[in-house]
């Protein structure tokens, strides 16, 4: 994959910035996500990008357009602010890390059953599940997508897989 240019990035966060988020919310951010923030803290890809969602029950592969990545510590669109603002709306193990131009969000799981998995939340149809899912997990089984409610769509098993799946938007 050809390297893409990031625009609108911020200075890299310090390890203490990650530690503060993790201590405040009681989770550990995946290493591949932290590595991305150290290289490109926030911003967007020149020309834009999209991710093709895995095929749904109807045989469709919806495009999910990425507007910008949230940053840590610096900038107007920060992970810390998104966590604080959305804590009552999202399951505690989902971390907002990027936005789509229509207001939908991309989230990263820090839960034990699907740690590191990436999901897309369509805010118009989002309804949280009415149950608490079992957070006990068997370490020998690979992470599997969870049902986080209506309007939440599994995209990738890791942040790296998500980045590798981003497609440049080409002008028509």
**Percent range of helical residues:** 10-25%
Please report the first level of CATH classification, the CATH class. Answer: Alpha Beta
| Total strand segments | 10
Helix count from the secondary structure assignment: 4
Strand order of the largest sheet: 5-6-7-8-9
- Computed over alpha carbons, the radius of gyration is 16 Å
Please report the distance between the alpha carbons of the first and last residues.
Answer: 22 Å
Query: What is the global morphology?
Result: globular
The proportion of residues in beta strands is 15-25%
Low-confidence stretches: none
Question: How many structural domains in the coordinates?
Answer: 1
CATH fold field value: SMI1/KNR4-like
Overall pLDDT score: 89
CATH architecture: 3-Layer(aba) Sandwich
Name of the CATH homologous superfamily: SMI1/KNR4-like
Structural class: alpha+beta
The biggest beta sheet, please?
Answer: 5 strands, antiparallel
Name a few traits of the molecule:
three-stranded antiparallel β-sheet; 172 residues; alpha+beta; SMI1/KNR4-like
Overview of the molecule:
This protein is an alpha+beta fold. The chain has a single domain, classed as SMI1/KNR4-like, CATH 3.40.1580. 20% of the residues lie in helices and 21% in strands. It contains four helices and ten strands. The chain has helices at residues 15-25, 31-39, 79-86, 159-165, and strands at 6-7, 44-45, 49-52, 63-66, 68-69, 94-99, 105-109, 118-121, 152-156, 167-168. Strands 5-6-7-8-9 form a five-stranded antiparallel β-sheet. The mean pLDDT is 89.
């Amino acid at each position: 994959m050809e390297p893409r240019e990031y625009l609108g990035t911020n200075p890299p966060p310090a390890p203490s910035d990650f530690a503060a988020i993790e201590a405040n919310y009681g989770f550990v951010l995946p290493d591949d996500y932290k590595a991305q923030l150290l290289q490109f803290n926030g911003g967007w890809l020149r020309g834009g990008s999209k991710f093709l969602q895995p095929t749904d029950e109807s045989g469709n592969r919806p495009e999910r357009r990425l507007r910008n990545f949230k940053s840590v510590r610096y900038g107007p669109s920060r992970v810390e602010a998104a966590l604080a603002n959305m804590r009552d709306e999202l399951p505690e193990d989902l971390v907002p890390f990027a936005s789509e131009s229509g207001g939908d969000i991309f989230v990263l799981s820090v839960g034990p059953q699907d740690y590191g998995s990436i999901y897309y939340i369509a805010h118009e149809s989002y309804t949280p599940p009415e149950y608490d899912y079992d957070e006990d997990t068997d370490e020998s089984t690979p992470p599997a997508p969870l049902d986080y409610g209506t309007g939440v769509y599994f995209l990738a098993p890791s942040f790296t897989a998500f980045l590798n799946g981003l497609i440049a938007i080409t002008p028509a």
